[in-house]
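Trying the structure run again after the queue cleared.
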Amino acid sequence: MADEKRIATRVSYGETLVELGAEHDDFLVFDADLAAATQTAKFKAAFPDRFYNAGIAEARLMPEFPWARTAPRTSATRTSPSCAPSPA
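Done. Tokens:
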């Protein structure tokens, strides 16, 4: 246990997104102005053409990019859980 490296969940999340982006060309990340806090900025730096920011309007995150729901792609969406739109 002394050799165990502990990192914050958000750091691991950001690093994992980059790994997934490297493995999958169709992987997208959607963000609601939380790139620094959630570490999605790492993905943005590595794959700027696959990173989409809806700004501070979390409730509009998915409606802002309707094409993403129908495109044959895999995506990760990160927002504050209290602001995430609920499924219909």
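The chain is about 35% helix and 15% strand. Worth checking whether this holds up in the mutant runs.
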